Amino acid sequence: MSVFEDDAAVRPKPTISDVARHAGVSKGLVSFVFNNRPGVAAQTRERILASAAELGWRPSVKAKSLSTRTSYALGLVIRREPHIIAADPFFPAFMAGVESVLTGAGRVLVLSMVPDARTEQQAYRTLVAENRVDGVFVTDLRQRDRRIGLLQQLRLPAVTIGHPEAAAPFPAVNLDDAAGIVAAVGHLAELGHERIAHVAGDPSMLHSARRAESFTRAMTEAGLDGSRMVSTDFSAAGGAAATRELIAARDQPTAIVYANDPMAIAGLGVLHGAGVGVPADVSVVGFDGIDMGRHLFPALSTIVADPEGWGAAAATTLLTLIAEGRAEDVELAPARLLLRSSTAPPPGHPPPPAPSEPSSHPTTRSRSSHVST
Amino acid sequence: MSVFEDDAAVRPKPTISDVARHAGVSKGLVSFVFNNRPGVAAQTRERILASAAELGWRPSVKAKSLSTRTSYALGLVIRREPHIIAADPFFPAFMAGVESVLTGAGRVLVLSMVPDARTEQQAYRTLVAENRVDGVFVTDLRQRDRRIGLLQQLRLPAVTIGHPEAAAPFPAVNLDDAAGIVAAVGHLAELGHERIAHVAGDPSMLHSARRAESFTRAMTEAGLDGSRMVSTDFSAAGGAAATRELIAARDQPTAIVYANDPMAIAGLGVLHGAGVGVPADVSVVGFDGIDMGRHLFPALSTIVADPEGWGAAAATTLLTLIAEGRAEDVELAPARLLLRSSTAPPPGHPPPPAPSEPSSHPTTRSRSSHVST
DNA sequence: CTGAAAGCGCTTACAG
DNA sequence: CTGAAAGCGCTTACAG
What is the pTM of this model? Predict the structure, then answer.
């Protein structure tokens, strides 16, 4: 039994030869028209296009791939555990951004999700050995990332999401997300917080490490102790454990900046469960700007970037690299602080004067207070 | 300037001809060996394998695709808005499950994320016109889903995630998630709840509609009014709005079953913000079992399915369909209720007898002093 | 401005 | 058990 309609079974897909015959030209001509090569008479061109439309023909990528040695596909290999990626809003948004440019470019996204380093290497090797993709996106850059060397050796065009540690031969599409951490620390310090902690993500990931460094630097520049930090694996469980650890310390922080929203939300739960008021006793800042945060109680102040725009820019850059052999780095607008209701002055702190414009914040800790909207 | 190492630039990829020459056989023989066809002398086979290994050759899918008219790729077209999919834990887990079987099968996942119905149709048409995939996964089944007919007409093998509305020619891989709703209603009814509401997802999606129907049916069977329901778009914002609507009603529910965890979490925020105690005043049940739920306060009772297993089973089924021309439906273990701390007896309700097993919870709020963990 | 032919790198009857 | 040849459906110099 076939699952298909019978009439369809009868009519095989047309090929370029069918179109050529129908239009009364050679296959080469048809190819020229579909590849926008000059030198085809306007009316011949129209006739060919009409024939193709009538027959419902579109060049088969299979054949095209073989003769042009191009896959018309871009790869994304994600190495993360399913339960962690399931909570992470970055990838879906990033992929949506990538898709938005690929669709118009006749390219397709080949996705690979792998659990560990070994299968990750294998995934890249297979992708190139089988000639599956024309280039790849390299996300979640790590310390001494072995993928850079591998990709170079494999001669696979790539674009890195963020700047790698060492100079790499690939274009980087960067978004300064650490700027958001700096803004958060600045805001909290202005509110009067002194004991500010950072719940970092996986320290082997560059963006996580950079956020942590930025935290410490911003703290130091504010004349505060930037060593209150605990690293996690980016999971909600990690965020919860880190929060428990922080509030168990004798000098409990009055503010916590988390490396992602899932951890911040878990942290909110822990604080709440421990009877610690947010933002009355402890201010909380997340990272990602996930939709849900707006509806929490209190609404989660967070740091927002533009993962969709990041994906689109990365795709454009990778396409350019593949087409021209080179592409410029691109720098996107930095992440910014989005204040909602989980941040306020520390307990017993005098209020600052009301600021005149909404985007600017009171500066001295001795005079801050009504931000708790 | 090339981004690659020079030595690599010198050595082009080996082809089957190189291997054949190196092993002193014809190309056909090499092909036979790599396709496990019988009739090759054992030692010839070894020699060929050795040559291939030495040259680092692997059949190019490009060429293989053209001669076998197979893409060695499976497609997944997701039609959802980025911000909704970003919060939804289903797809990442589902895709991880799919990947887990594709990796060993020499297949690859081609992903497409589209914003609306028009681009969705286009995506499928392009996938087959260009011969990109050998089959597709059809998720988020809808009422009068036009994709079923389209796919049939396009003659593209497919497997549906869940049973479509009308009989379809494609195998279905089903997981009875509505069973979780029934279990939740049963549990809440046993606890003494009578005014139980359901915050449904997008009513045009079959799984959402089925959960809603199951809710009403289970309520009716329990002798309760199953009409307290509000539909949403599955977003956190939708869950928040629905919750606001429910608690504004004169006969405010004492329990709410949400169609997904992001909505439940937003609902928790709204309830909390409105001074409604959870679970003291209102019990809350989510759906998905996202990691974060465990760390909320109160920890979110929810309904858990196995999206990863679902993805793996769907991939296996699709591969079978493509290989054999047909495949059996598969039925997975139904979703089940996972009790945590957001459910308790309704206000002022007498406690049920203490059950012997740990999975049950104290019931009366008048003596549930220790539930508030 | 157009056509005939070779080639991309495999697979697969068909002979031997 | 093995080899030579045609073919998959395109693209692209190369002639005209």
Answer: 0.90
